[in-house]
What does this fold into?
Amino acid sequence: MSSPITIRPYRATDVDSIYEAARESIAEIGPWMPWCHGGYSRDDTVAWVDSRSAAWESATDFSFVIEGEGACLLGCCGLNRFDRPNGTANLGYWVRTTATRQGVATGAVGMLRAWAFANTDFHRLEILSAVDNVASQRVARKSGAEFEGVLKQRLILHGRRHDAALFSLLR
It folds into this structure.
């Protein structure tokens, strides 16, 4: 990684940076994250950022921005899809196009894992990636997640069913 990164909860002042990063990255992340499409607007970003504090307070989602040197927004990551009785959560991430292939996502996954195991009761974090999303699987492997298998037709992306690779990080 070329410069140190940090993760932190969202702030209202992140809207423009997140919008810019998402718009820059539509071609790369749009196939895997249907919210990131050609019609994605600043209003979509405002609604998302505005919803983060309530999700945090109700402990239904823990979302973070990934920052680089000079507080430059590099992407976002978070925990969601909580299964509290079984102690599991989904761990997701995306990195803006100009920050890819620099270890940003891998570093953020490590920080988010450490945060989750220090601040929640989750025992298992899962990373689920479409089997064709090679970049996401590379991040999962580099972050130390264990590949557990392929789940047939597990994801629907853009109206099509996709097989998904499942990785886990354990406490």
